[in-house]
Design a protein that fits this description.
181 residues, 5 strands
């Protein structure tokens, strides 16, 4: 189910990859750290500010994050050989986030949990598979009912993005995945 959902999102939004993870999987091999802010203390500005503070504390912490409510989640995602993209072992990864939280200031966050998770990238190389064939294979093939429905959703989404960009300007509405240099 997770692979199909991730594949569906990647297909519709034309993402090169979607990160699928489960923090409650004790058999996982990916380290994670949850940084909690006080109730209603975390918003997009604070999350980005903390992310930048973490990156300044330890370069390997600048890989990305996810936010749920008042929690900012950092995954020490590994490549196919089991080496973290961050270049940091899990203990150093966690320590860096603890140091970033301790020095952050207001609103004062704390590392509320850490451990192992399952995390993997579900993807499609759009340069090689221009019609999203890697995603399509997860979704029942190019002629499958799900892919046909997602094609309609994708057309609607692209149309809305273009319409909004024309009225507001592209830099204000396009997700980073649509901004190509």
């Amino acid at each position: 189910m997770t692979r199909r959902l991730a594949g569906s999102l990647g297909y519709v939004f034309r993402q090169y990859s979607v990160l699928a993870s489960r923090l409650d999987d004790a058999t996982g091999k990916t380290g994670f750290v949850v940084v909690r802010f006080h109730q209603d203390g975390l918003n997009a500005t604070v999350a980005q500010k903390f992310f930048e503070a973490a990156d300044a504390t330890e370069k390997g912490l600048g890989g990305g994050y996810t936010v749920f409510g008042d929690e900012q989640i950092f995954l020490n995602v590994t490549n196919s050989e089991g080496k973290p993209y961050s270049g940091l072992d899990d203990a150093t990864f966690q320590d860096g986030l603890k140091r970033a939280a301790a020095s952050f200031g207001d609103p004062a966050p704390e590392v509320s949990s850490s451990g192992k998770a399952t995390a993997r990238f579900i993807g499609n190389d759009w340069e090689k598979s221009k019609r999203g064939e890697d995603y399509q294979s997860l979704l029942g093939g190019p002629d499958g009912e799900l892919v046909k429905k997602l094609d309609e959703i994708s057309k609607d989404y692209a149309s809305l993005v273009v319409k909004t960009a024309e009225s507001k300007g592209p830099r204000q509405v396009l997700p980073s995945s649509f901004e190509r240099s």
